[in-house]
Amino acid sequence: MGLQLQTQRLVLREFAYEDWPAVHAYASDPEVTRYMSWGPNDEAASQGFVKTVIAQQGKLPRTAYDLAITLKINGQLIGGCGIYRRRLQEGEMGYCLHRAYWNKGYVTEAATALLEFAFSQEGFHRIYATCDPRNLGSARVMEKSGMRREGHMKEHLYKDGQWRDSLLYAILDWEWRAPRE
Ligand SMILES: CC(C)(COP(=O)(O)OP(=O)(O)OC[C@H]1O[C@@H](n2cnc3c(N)ncnc32)[C@H](O)[C@@H]1OP(=O)(O)O)[C@@H](O)C(=O)NCCC(=O)NCCS
Fold first, then answer.
1. How far is the CA of 139 from the centre of ligand 1 (A)?
2. Is 80 helix (H, G, I), strand (E, B) or coil?
3. Contact present, 126 and 120 (Cβ < 8 Å)
4. Closest among 125, 101, 139, 141 to 175, alpha carbons compared
5. Which CATH number describes the domain made up of 4-177?
6. Pocket of ligand 1, candidates 31, 104, 107: which has the most ligand atoms within 8 Å of its Cβ, to mutate?
7. Fewer CB atoms near the end CB (10 Å): N or C, the chain?
8. What are the tens digits of pLDDT across the range 90-106?
9. DSSP string, 4-17
10. pLDDT tens digit string along 11-21?
11. To test the ligand 1 pocket, which listed residue (28, 101, 102, 167) has its Cβ within 8 A of the most ligand atoms?
């Protein structure tokens, strides 16, 4: 069955090839991909994404943990999230949600489950994530997930003929386990 994480309202599960139209529904939306390094996708790019992700599922040791964000109530695929091993115990987290589901706390719920999985089950020491400084929703997700802002990287990402800044957020395993207010 592969990896599956449950939260109160979500099931984070492995992608299957049949998921590509649901992926395309958000990955082709320029509003969704505005601050991403990729997109908006054409159909071939969304199919290619799903194929690449499926090829990573069987790799040992696993370096890319891409999971579909689905609603527990009806199984609908509403986004994607993942942890990517960059070094032995360091991972990068990413996420993306269909626009119709923004601002309902879903990605914070998914990110919290991913961090718990990374630290408790996979032995990561540090997880970081970046976002465009204009992407206030993404920065807020990282803050709500307990991540600390570590820096502002100037002209970190080149997209559509422009250099873009990124904010860097991170959390360590012992910070994740520390009691929170
Ligand atoms: C960014 C994104 C992941 C957030 O997911 P989400 O499920 O809507 O996030 P949540 O509902 O858990 O939290 C969003 C928070 O940001 C806040 N927020 C959203 N837009 C905001 C804005 N324009 N200004 C200020 N705060 C904003 C919300 O109010 C909420 O905070 P609160 O709970 O304190 O009120 C989602 O909008 C998305 O997928 N965007 C497109 C892809 C993307 O940018 N991915 C991240 C790349 S780094």
1. 7
2. strand
3. no
4. 125
5. 3.40.630.30
6. 107
7. C
8. 999 999 999 999 999 99
9. EEE-SSEEEE---G
10. 999 999 999 99
11. 102
